[in-house]
Amino acid sequence: NELTVDITPQSSSNKILVMLSVSGMIYGTSTQDHGVIIKANGTEIKRVNSYKADNTWDAGNYSGVVLHSPSSTSQQSYTVWYFRDGGNAQDFRINRSGGDSTITVMEIAG
User: Fold this and answer.
1) Radius of gyration of the chain (CA)
2) By the 8 A CB rule, do 51 and 35 touch?
3) Cα(51)–Cα(30) distance, rounded to whole angstroms?
């Protein structure tokens, strides 16, 4: 699953405030770095990290805010991705820990 939202800035000097709250369940078979990445048009602009204990299901809740300066009036597409670095198989199930996941964007005049 992925969260995506699009916005088209009215001026190239404007900035985009991106806010996210991701809720899910994580299962891992070894301790490893994991979290979520915010991408703007496919390019990483923010990484929210956490660590995972061995062989358990845990609630994985992430929140982050980033002020992006696209310097463009073209449509911007913001997407949230789950990542893990190292270790063995890892499973992430979005919205499975009793919460809702959201990504919200707001244009700020520059």
Assistant:
1) 15
2) no
3) 10
Alpha carbons 33 and 85: distance in angstroms, whole number? 5
Give the chain's length: 110
- pLDDT tens digit string along 23-79? 877 766 666 667 788 999 999 999 887 766 566 777 777 889 999 999 999 999 999
Amino acid in position 93: R
Lookup result for tokens 């300066």: 69
Q: Token pair 């939202």 is at which residue?
A: 5
Is residue 27 within 8 Å of residue 106, measured between CB atoms?
no
Task: Give the DSSP letter of residue 95.
Answer: T
Q: Determine whether 26 is exposed, middle or buried from the number of CB atoms within 10 Å of its CB (0-12, 13-18, 19+).
A: buried
Contact 15, 93 (CB under 8 A): no
